């Protein structure tokens, strides 16, 4: 009996000791990158009332855990540098080594963001030559939750961009970071929170839907919180907010520089509603991080045969691309056009180099204030001239051209008020394009690249960036009225 009570007593104190240990969120770890030039936010859990002291680069600060065991503090801002040691002391001590100070970019979306480097063009050579230890990557484990969580699941590790690890990096994120690191010479951290096949609604918080005229009726049909019986770990789209709850909310306290986003394929049937859904997500994340209108750069859908949509039949993918382009009305956003790097027969184009580089070009110009061009021609206005229409663009950058030179432009269509689009003759003249067709004597509208699979379109500027698909009309599309619903 005496041994039994001794065992119980020892077990009690061991449990108490474990419960009292200072703990950091799963996003913290060896080889991590912390955001430069802003107060460094550190947080975690401990025994209620426990004094916690945090030290980094010769500077320390302490705080006290609240009654709920939570604690947080801000260390003074740091310039890019390292490696440093981060020490957290309470009843126990945590030591994290090889910590760098640089820029953190969240990489999120669906499969084309999750797509790993090992599955891309020239992967073997790229992996073998990777020696970029100042680029660090962490993959948030794929989990769902019916209510917001305060920590990620599992034990992911920060890893350096070396041949040993880089094959599993997000390929788009890696090429983006590689270009930034080359131009800026500062550490770049990639916080990879992505999941293939996911829609935008699962990445958006419930509160954002509740405050939206477009979505409040939908969200009111969903239980709060979503019961465990509904949450299926293999189906992140079964209800809204499941991935926001488990893969975004837990990392929101982590200071970041910005976000790169590649998603939309799973929302193509709802292109018109995406005009509301995508800006809602961006504004939601900016509200949550509470660091202002941080950079949010995204990839426009590439070419893919999908349902074979055209101007004549209607194109869901064209309408989704249009919704993405319209999102540029939000401040501090940018869009990488990728029609030329798509694959008609594969929704996952393996050229992720150009995608990452185009996102990096946007960031270098808009975030880091370089003088580089970052966009292809963007439709500005049309002007009717008899039986022809002249199309004018922004981002001409030295002139308009075709992808491989020559005079033949592909992908232009023209229609009269009957809305019957015909293949058009399109000719570059100075910094504008003249569009016409012998079949359309009284033209009213022009479209460019308005189809699911628009791989053949070839308008570029002389800086080497492709033009974004566009239309000059506002005629009702085939996704108007389609709405997201849940059982």
Structure description:
The chain folds into three domains: 74 residues, Immunoglobulin-like (Sandwich); 263 residues, 3-Layer(aba) Sandwich (Rossmann fold), CATH 3.40.50.1110; 88 residues, no CATH class. 21% of the residues lie in helices and 26% in strands. The chain is an alpha/beta fold. α4 crosses α10 and α8 runs parallel beside α9. Strands 1, 3, 4, 6, 7, 8, 9, 10, 11, 12 and 13 form an eleven-stranded mixed beta sheet that branches.
CATH topology of the largest domain: Rossmann fold
Overall shape: globular
What would you call the structural class? Answer: alpha/beta
Give the strand tally: 23
Secondary-structure map:
Layout: H1 2-20, E1 33-35, E2 40-45, E3 51-56, E4 59-64, E5 70-75, E6 81-89, E7 93-109, H2 111-114, H3 123-129, E8 132-139, E9 159-161, H4 171-184, E10 188-194, H5 206-210, H6 216-219, H7 242-248, E11 258-262, H8 271-289, E12 296-299, H9 316-326, E13 333-336, H10 353-366, E14 378-385, E15 388-394, E16 400-402, E17 412-415, E18 422-423, E19 425-429, E20 432-436, E21 445-448, E22 459-461, E23 470-471
Parallel strand pairs: 1-7, 7-10, 7-11, 8-10, 11-12, 12-13
Antiparallel strand pairs: 2-5, 3-4, 3-6, 6-7, 8-9, 14-15, 15-20, 16-22, 17-18, 17-21, 19-20, 21-23
In short:
By secondary structure, the chain is of the alpha/beta class. Helix content is 21%, strand content 26%.
Descriptive key words:
single chain; 487 residues; alpha/beta; Immunoglobulin-like; 3 domains; eleven-stranded mixed β-sheet; four-stranded antiparallel β-sheet; 23 strands; 21% helix; globular
């Amino acid at each position: 009996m005496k041994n039994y009570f001794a065992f119980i007593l020892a077990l009690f104190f061991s449990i108490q000791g474990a419960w009292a240990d200072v703990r950091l969120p799963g996003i913290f770890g060896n080889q991590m990158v912390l955001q430069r030039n802003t107060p460094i936010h550190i947080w975690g859990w401990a025994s209620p009332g426990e004094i916690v002291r945090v030290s980094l680069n010769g500077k320390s600060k302490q705080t006290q855990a609240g009654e709920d065991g939570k604690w947080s503090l801000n260390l003074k801002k740091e310039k890019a540098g390292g490696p440093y040691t981060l020490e957290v002391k309470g009843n126990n001590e945590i030591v994290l080594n090889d910590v760098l100070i640089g820029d953190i970019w969240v990489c999120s979306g669906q499969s084309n963001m999750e797509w790993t480097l090992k599955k891309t063009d020239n992967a073997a050579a790229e992996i073998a030559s990777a020696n970029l230890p100042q680029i660090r990557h962490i993959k948030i484990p794929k989990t769902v939750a019916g209510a917001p969580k305060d920590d990620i699941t599992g034990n992911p590790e920060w890893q350096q961009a070396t041949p040993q690890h880089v094959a599993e990096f997000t390929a788009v994120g890696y090429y983006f970071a590689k270009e930034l690191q080359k131009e800026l010479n500062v550490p770049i951290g990639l916080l990879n929170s992505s999941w293939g096949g996911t829609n935008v609604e699962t990445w958006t918080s419930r509160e954002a839907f509740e405050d939206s005229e477009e979505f409040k009726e939908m969200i009111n049909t969903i239980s709060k919180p979503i019961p465990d019986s509904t949450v299926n770990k293999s189906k992140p789209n079964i209800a809204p907010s499941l991935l926001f709850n488990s893969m975004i909310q837990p990392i929101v306290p982590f200071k970041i520089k910005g976000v790169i986003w590649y998603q939309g394929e799973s929302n193509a049937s709802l292109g018109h509603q995406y005009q509301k859904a995508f800006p809602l997500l961006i504004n939601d994340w900016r509200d949550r991080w509470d660091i202002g209108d941080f950079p949010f750069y995204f990839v426009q859908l590439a070419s893919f045969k999908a349902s074979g949509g055209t101007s004549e039949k209607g194109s869901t993918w064209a309408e989704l691309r249009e919704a993405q382009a319209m999102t540029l009305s939000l401040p501090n956003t940018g869009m990488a056009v990728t029609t030329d790097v798509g694959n008609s027969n594969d929704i996952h184009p393996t050229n992720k180099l150009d995608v990452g580089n185009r996102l990096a070009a946007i960031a270098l110009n808009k975030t880091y204030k370089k003088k580089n061009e970052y966009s292809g021609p963007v439709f500005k206005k049309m002007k009717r001239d008899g039986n022809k229409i002249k199309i004018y663009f922004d981002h001409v950058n030295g002139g308009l051209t075709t992808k491989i030179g020559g005079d033949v432009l592909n992908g232009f269509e023209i229609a009269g008020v009957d809305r019957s689009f015909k293949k058009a003759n399109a000719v570059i003249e100075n910094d504008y394009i003249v569009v016409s067709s012998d079949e359309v004597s009284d033209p009213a509208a022009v479209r460019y690249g308005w189809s699911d699979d628009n791989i053949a379109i070839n308008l570029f500027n002389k800086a080497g960036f492709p033009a974004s698909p566009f239309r000059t009309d506002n005629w009702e599309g085939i996704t108007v009225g389609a709405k997201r619903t849940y059982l």
